[in-house]
Automatic annotation (TrEMBL), chain A:
<dbReference type="GO" id="GO:0005525">
    <property type="term" value="F:GTP binding"/>
</dbReference>
<dbReference type="InterPro" id="IPR005225">
    <property type="entry name" value="Small_GTP-bd"/>
</dbReference>
<keyword id="KW-0653">Protein transport</keyword>
<keyword id="KW-0813">Transport</keyword>
<dbReference type="InterPro" id="IPR027417">
    <property type="entry name" value="P-loop_NTPase"/>
</dbReference>
<dbReference type="GO" id="GO:0005769">
    <property type="term" value="C:early endosome"/>
</dbReference>
<keyword id="KW-0967">Endosome</keyword>
<dbReference type="InterPro" id="IPR001806">
    <property type="entry name" value="Small_GTPase"/>
</dbReference>
<dbReference type="Pfam" id="PF00071">
    <property type="entry name" value="Ras"/>
</dbReference>
TrEMBL record, chain B:
<dbReference type="GO" id="GO:0005096">
    <property type="term" value="F:GTPase activator activity"/>
</dbReference>
<dbReference type="InterPro" id="IPR000195">
    <property type="entry name" value="Rab-GAP-TBC_dom"/>
</dbReference>
<keyword id="KW-0333">Golgi apparatus</keyword>
<comment type="function">
    <text>Acts as a GTPase-activating protein for RAB5A and RAB43. Involved in receptor trafficking. In complex with EPS8 inhibits internalization of EGFR. Involved in retrograde transport from the endocytic pathway to the Golgi apparatus. Involved in the transport of Shiga toxin from early and recycling endosomes to the trans-Golgi network. Required for structural integrity of the Golgi complex.</text>
</comment>
<dbReference type="Pfam" id="PF00566">
    <property type="entry name" value="RabGAP-TBC"/>
</dbReference>
<keyword id="KW-0597">Phosphoprotein</keyword>
<keyword id="KW-0968">Cytoplasmic vesicle</keyword>
<dbReference type="InterPro" id="IPR050302">
    <property type="entry name" value="Rab_GAP_TBC_domain"/>
</dbReference>
<dbReference type="GO" id="GO:0005794">
    <property type="term" value="C:Golgi apparatus"/>
</dbReference>
Length: 215, 641
């Protein structure tokens, strides 16, 4: 599928062209500390990779826009802190989220176990229609692999999760996993019918709050 | 793996981590992973095309500034000679606000923190704690991973297992044993990292200990479970914004930007990595002298200086990026200028009696004796995470959620002052606090979780287009169609509730001023913030302050969707029961209570699904899973005028 990461895709359309539908989704990243959550976001949003990404305290917020065929999808991304103590803040970020990426580190079996716990918590506490993707990050370190691809794939299949192995460092599958999520999310108010309410259309002229307005 | 094997594994892991720091860089030649160690001389970044950038200093310190600092050094050295004299105390304030010469920070910081005298009262303590940590610390893994990314662009920390990296690891591990309530919390590596730039290992340990437990700084409350001090200081910060910069506050609220989202590192690590390092040091100088009110004033100063720029940013993303990233790279004001404004802010806040959020309550101070060994429990030894939240954590979650939701109220109020009085607004906030607490209990206890079918937006859209503009915007505020209120008393254990009392018959759009029949709950759901697009069902308690009922009564807002068909996989639970309760003045409606047997992707089986297929709603009251009674919820004819 054609994809561009253009922040102003809708605005750049020539006048008179049929307006692209702009949908906004809240997406949260969860996972054990140091698995690469912030690095995945940085790669997706800015195309960069920092060798020593500072540890996230609390949470970070970023946005990125993806253009699908007929829809522009804007992700509001909440990147959370991995340490357990910050876990009590997590519901603030995943409440109302339409999508989540649960990240583990393929070189560390414990982080995979932790990812499963996050999936469980989301299934129990988040919106029932939330789209959950599992990301096995650091796939560039395949030589030190401790979590087999098949094991994670089987788990993802059982739980209806999207699954990819990613590398924030080499950019492998980073855009793809966000794109897969964007494709899976319902794009219109009537579609899906999940409790998450599907996307919020941003080009409703009467939306009073500017964060819900087409930009 | 059985418990023994897990314990052994955790023990091995800790031993392995410690061993590497003990051996240090020199003795680990060839054993350091290339990905952990920068190969290049300077900190580098890889851009999207794969080019590695060597970022060189853009600006050098002007020579005249260095001259000034050399002159100051002389004065400071003289002052150090007679540190305890009254003249020093006189001069200290003014001199510190001018900035401690960098070469003397090592000495002055120790003086200001009183490191030597604290250290001398516990000789050997640091080594003892470090030894204990090697044997017991359950935080070694987390500390190791944070040391690996703390200040890696600084020459002290650039190389993996460098001397300072080892010191940082040791200080944090030792402290995690010294203060068993805090252990290690992310953020502390930033504090210790700065201290170690100016102190040796043991002094840095004691300086960290003082910052956490001395009442002047009391950072203990920031790092313990639930972060109580953070909450308290954020509330105070909000108060200051509301009073001095209401427009900016409104601007933040408009984008759903809670202070916790942009200011966390201000409070947690005293502006480390949020303002340029030279400025950060100046703030630290003053913080060490004057204590925690400096943080409050600096937070205010940053926003005051950049108010105009922030007001121009019309996106949460842009605002957060500006405050967190841009100001770190380039603050836009000379350090001296910022400190000048910081001092003015402190005076201004003092005049308004807002300079200090008050002394820390006992719960924010260490409760257990410091430096006394407490054996970690089995779970943390193994490295397992707790599966359920503690009471403190639940409270913290509730507070956080409340803060998040609260910020949408003022902007709403500003727009529709005529509709909602301040009094109602306040009571709504209170109710929402209670609401979220209860919401928490619902989700935590896992007793009942209600899955609401989503609104289609169609029916309500048609109706709301005819509504008055204020209500129209409410519709979008709530991002919802007509939401009904259903009462479910889900927590009662054998106690029965008077059904009449636990019922409310409000539609969500009825908070037009009076709002309360004693339940104090009406209009709750309209506060739903669209930007968070809440989908989780709302369970609301009767707030204890206004309700005579047991707090066990929970109200659940059921979003209504007339077009949605009953999901095929859901089996109605004796829907015929409802009919006997149907009020003959109303058309019969069908309201089904469903269990989620067979529903895919929903792990929890003890959920109740409520499917409402009419706007004339029956409100079931459920006690211990059984329906006691149900009522119609009256629609409000006035609201669609």
């Amino acid at each position: 599928m054609d994809m561009a990461t253009n922040r102003n895709a809708a605005a750049q359309r020539p006048n008179g062209a049929p307006q692209t539908k702009v949908c906004q989704f809240k997406l949260v990243l969860l996972g054990e500390s140091a698995v690469g959550k912030s690095s995945l976001v940085l790669r997706f949003v800015k195309g960069q990779f920092h060798e020593y990404q500072e540890s996230t305290i609390g949470a970070a917020f970023l946005t990125q826009t993806l253009c699908l065929d007929d829809t522009t999808v804007k992700f509001e991304i909440w990147d959370t802190a991995g340490q357990e103590r910050y876990h009590s803040l997590a519901p603030m970020y995943y409440r109302g989220a339409q999508a989540a990426i649960v990240v583990y580190d393929i070189t560390n079996q414990d982080t995979f176990g932790r990812a499963k716990n996050w999936v469980k918590e989301l299934q129990r506490q988040a919106s029932p229609s939330i789209v959950i993707a599992l990301a096995g990050n650091k796939s560039d370190l395949a030589a030190k692999r401790m979590v087999e691809f098949e094991e994670a794939q089987a788990y993802a299949d059982e739980n209806g999760l999207l699954f990819m192995e990613t590398s924030a460092k080499t950019a492998m599958n980073v855009n793809d996993i966000f794109l897969a999520i964007a494709n899976k999310l319902p794009k219109s108010e009537s579609a899906g019918g999940g409790a998450a309410g599907g996307a919020r259309r941003l080009n409703d002229a009467d939306a009073p709050r500017s964060s819900s307005c087409c930009k | 793996m059985n418990e023994e094997a897990l314990l052994a594994r955790a023990f091995e892991e800790r031993a392995r981590i410690f061993q590497r720091y003990e051996r240090g860089r020199e003795n680990l030649a060839g054993q350091i992973d290339p990905w952990e160690d920068p190969e290049f001389e300077d900190y580098h970044k890889t851009d999207r095309y794969g080019f590695i950038h060597d970022e060189r200093l853009l600006q050098k310190t002007a020579p005249q500034k260095i001259n000034v600092e050399v002159e100051r050094e002389k004065k400071w050295l003289k002052m150090l000679g007679s540190w305890d004299s009254p003249t020093t105390m006189e001069k200290l304030h003014r001199r510190i606000y001018k900035g401690i010469p960098n070469s003397l920070r090592i000495k002055i910081w120790c003086k200001l923190l009183n490191v030597n005298s604290v250290k001398s009262t516990s000789p050997g303590k640091y080594q003892e704690m470090l030894k204990l940590a090697k044997q017991w610390s359950t935080d070694a893994r987390q500390i190791d991973s944070d040391v690996n990314r703390q200040f890696r662009e600084h020459q002290f920390y650039r190389e993996r297992y460098s001397e300072k990296q080892c010191s940082l690891f040791n200080v944090l591990c030792a402290y995690s044993m010294y203060n068993s309530e805090v252990g290690y919390c992310q953020g502390m590596s930033g504090l210790a990292g700065v201290l170690l730039m100016y102190m040796d290992e043991e002094d840095a340990f004691w300086a960290l200990a003082i910052l956490l437990s001395d009442k002047k700084y009391a950072m203990h409350g920031l790092y313990i479970e639930g972060f109580p001090k953070l909450t308290r200081f954020l509330e105070h910060h909000d108060k200051i914004l509301t009073k001095f910069m209401p427009k900016l506050k409104h601007h933040f609220d408009k984008f759903g930007l809670d202070a916790i989202l942009y200011s966390l590192k201000w409070f947690f690590v005293c502006f480390v990595e949020r303002v340029p390092f030279s400025l950060c040091l100046r703030v630290w100088d003053i913080y060490l002298l004057d204590g925690e009110r400096v943080i409050t004033a600096m937070a205010y100063t940053i926003l005051k200086l950049h108010k105009k720029a922030i007001m121009k940013l019309n996106d949460m993303d842009l605002i957060v990026n500006f405050i967190q990233v841009k100001l770190h790279k380039e603050f836009g004001y000379e350090d001296d200028m910022v400190i000048y404004h910081l001092e003015r802010s402190m005076e201004e806040l003092k005049r308004a009696k807002l300079d200090y959020p008050g002394p820390p309550p006992p719960t924010e101070l260490p409760q257990r004796a410091l430096g006394v060994f407490v054996e970690p429990d089995k779970k943390s030894k193994i490295g397992q995470r707790a599966e359920n939240f503690s009471e403190t954590e639940k409270q913290a979650r509730a507070t956080v959620i409340l803060r998040e939701e609260e910020i949408f109220v003022p902007s709403d109020t500003l727009k529709y002052k005529s509709k909602v009085t301040q009094k109602d607004n306040n009571s709504t906030r209170r109710e929402k606090a209670a609401l979220d607490l209860q919401d928490l209990r619902v989700s935590q206890s896992d007793t009942v979780s209600v899955v609401c079918s989503d609104h289609s937006g169609v029916a309500s859209g048609v109706r709301c287009e005819d509504s008055v503009s204020a209500l129209g915007s409410r519709r979008s505020l709530a991002d919802t169609s007509v939401t009904s209120t259903a009462d479910l008393s889900v927590f009662s254990s054998g106690r029965s509730h008077a059904p009449d009392n636990s019922l409310d018959t409000h539609s969500n759009i009825s908070d037009d001023g009076t709002g309360s029949d004693g339940s104090g709950i009406c209009g709750m759901s309209i506060q739903r913030a669209p930007s968070t697009a809440h989908s989780t069902p709302r369970a609301t308690p009767h707030p204890p302050s206004v309700s005579p009922h047991s707090e066990d009564v929970v109200r659940i807002h059921v979003t209504y969707n007339p077009l949605a068909a009953s999901p095929a996989h859901l089996q109605p639970v004796s829907p015929s029961k409802y009919k006997s309760y149907a009020d003959e003045h109303h058309k019969p409606v069908s309201l089904g209570l469903y269990t989620s047997n067979g529903a895919p992707n929903i792990s929890s089986d003890n959920r109740i699904r409520i499917q409402v297929s009419s706007d004339e709603l029956l409100t079931p009251v459920v006690d211990s899973g059984r329906i006691i009674t149900q009522r119609y919820i009256e629609s409000h004819p006035g609201i669609y005028e």
